[in-house]
Amino acid sequence: MYNFVFKPLKLALLTLLLAVILQYSATAETLQTPVYSYKVINTYPHSTDSFTQGLVFDQGVLYESTGLNGQSAVKIVDLKSGKTIKSHELPDKYFGEGMTIVGNKIFQLTWRAKKGFVYDKNTLKLLRTFNYSTQGWGITYDGKYLIMSDGSDVLYYLDPKTFNVSGKLEVYDQNGKVSRLNELEYIDGNIYANVWGTEKIAIINPKSGQVKAWIDLSGLLSGEDKKKRIDVLNGIAYNEENQKLYVTGKLWPKLFEIEVIEQN
To answer: pTM for the complete prediction?
Structure first.
C-alpha cells in the first residue's frame, strides 16, 4: 500500500522539480543585462588639461568639475570651443571629484578629504562647505535627493539641505555587485554611472539597484587619440533642453554627443 502511494508522489515531485528547473532557466535568460551600442552625432574639443570628474548641463550651459591636486576646479565651459569661460580653483590640498546642480547651486565633491563645496552656479562664488563619511566620487540629483558614489557598489541618498544620508542603494547585475561606480547622471528616471576603469556606462534602476542595461562605448576615442596623455572614460552630461547626451574622459582631447542604440 505504501509503495502504491509513494510512486505517484515521487513522480509528482520529479515533475515539480523539472518545472522549477525550466522556470529558472527561462528566468536566467531574461536576466541577461542588455548591452547597447552608440552612434557619434557630434564631436567637440575638450581641454587635455581637464581631469574630468563631473560634467553637467544646466539650462543649456555646460559645467565641468576637474580633479588632481593643484589642478582641481569647477568651470563653466563653452561647448563648441572647449574653452573655459569661468573657473573657480580649489586649494591645492583638495582633489576635486563629481558635481551636480540643484537650483542655483553647484555641489562639488572631493576625493579623500570627505569635504564638499557649494557654489553659486552663475558666479562660482563659494557659499559653504559640507562633510560626508566616505570617499567622494560622483554625484547627481534626482529632484529630491543628492545621489553620491564612493567607488563601491553602493550609492548614497543625501538630503541636499542637511547632507544627512537618507538611504543607500546597492547596485548589481546578473553577475553580482557592480562596484567602482564613478561619475553619475540622473536621466529620465534612471541613474547613469561610469564604471571606473571600463568603457561602459551602467543604466541603473533607482528603486531596485539593478543595472537595466549597459552602454558599451568601446572605440569612442580613436587609436591615435589614445596615444596621447589620456586617462579613463569619465563624464556624462544630459542636456534637457535638446535631449542630447554627451560623454568625455579624463584628459581627453574630445567631448562627444552620442545617440544610444538599443540592440535587438
So the answer is: 0.86
